[in-house]
Design a protein that fits this description.
51 residues; alpha+beta; 4 strands; globular
Length: 51
């Protein structure tokens, strides 16, 4: 069974964990997708990707 997709505005910014995941999100019509890197900053908040 496939998980249900949540309703998210397609023009809101989203962070993906990898380029592959970002492409899947873009394929669903989301237009503002960014890939989380080792040090990503969003709205003045630094996000640090760990493994």
């Amino acid at each position: 069974m496939m998980p249900q997709k949540a309703a998210v505005a397609r023009d809101k910014p989203l962070l993906a964990q990898s380029e592959h995941k970002a492409e899947l999100i873009r394929a669903d019509g989301v237009t503002d997708v960014h890939v989380l890197t080792e040090a990503t900053e969003s709205n003045g908040v630094q996000l640090i990707k760990t493994v």
